[in-house]
């Protein structure tokens, strides 16, 4: 089917991601509440869905074993065009084990954890097997819902076997795969025990997308080094078959944030926050509580700043929203304790009876309140150690039309390559550099803030989630699949 916006025909699309855009919470027997799922992938994709006749396939956020309950939840989700994959008994080894205990650290240059061979459920091999089983469960649900002509867009590191399974099932299906996280250097990727199988599967896709040129380049050179295939301008060539590899920087739906900041109740929340923090500059951090987000490094940089700048001690506050995530993975639980320890130390050192330098929250906040926080912040501090894109940076800029605050941004986030012109880029491992950037941001002249904001605001408006989806889908549509080539012969 040709993708032609002008003729009004919307291409049919199956978006397959580990998480559905809504997560279910059980409220009673056979009853559920549905909430928006966390993470950049979901917020990015929401900006895309409207342009296509889209159905979502993914994990609904809960285990459901009872068939009657499965049907009830599937019905509720169907109203939101969502189709659940009930991963149940496979979930722990697939999601906590292989996806987030093994692949996630490798993709973010953090190295493999020590294999736990005391517990047969936790060996690399059992987790790898569960990963493959889970990918097959996604395939089965797709097969049940697939209509001829549907394009299948697979997302992220959870589904690296799905392209191969889809092509084995029906070689005519057009398959795209997009990686929302970074792709590492081949030297790091090489340590993964099942390294070749995963790459070979991903390469069966018709189009592969990455956020940045660097991630795409790492991927291609990893394929050439590990599989001995050829890397070209187009992508990867294996025995004459080309897999197109291209760069599509994800964005947000900026108008949603701009509109929200204008709502009377959000303005009211902004006024209350301004009153609450009167006489102080607000530095804001909004992250999932993940090792890759560099939250301890952020606290150390802020501590250094307070140490070196006593005149700022009662004039600045760091508000850190640390959204709980992946509690089933031991590393994440350790991180929470580490973050709490640092907050306690810094508040103990620099706080007073009536004021504390860090306000640390172990929870998410609702969307309107988040926009109010973004809008009143003077500085946004993003210190990711490595990050796919970091859409929080984009969200901050979209909400800063009035204030024109400063973005201090890690050079290791994908966004560092897109928003680098307007942001103050830092190496988050260098506490002195983070401390200096905080100082520079707090002291920056209005003129400089305006100039920097203008550049980034323009970028965020232009490179939206809609553009990302359009560009990916256009390119996927133009890519000739192997089966189309065979017909053309
Ligand atoms: C990152 C990943 C997404 C994931 C999100 C939230 O953005 O790239 O695939 O959905 O984090 O993580 P979670 O494990 O809660 O889905």
From TrEMBL:
Its EC number is 2.4.1.15. One of its GO terms (molecular function) is trehalose-phosphatase activity. Keywords: Glycosyltransferase, Transferase. One of its GO terms (cellular component) is cytosol. GO terms for biological process: trehalose biosynthetic process. The keyword Transport does not apply. In the C-terminal section; belongs to the trehalose phosphatase family. This is alpha,alpha-trehalose-phosphate synthase (UDP-forming). It comes from Microthlaspi erraticum. The lineage of its organism: Eukaryota, Viridiplantae, Streptophyta, Embryophyta, Tracheophyta. The chain holds residues 1 to 489 of 797 of the full protein.
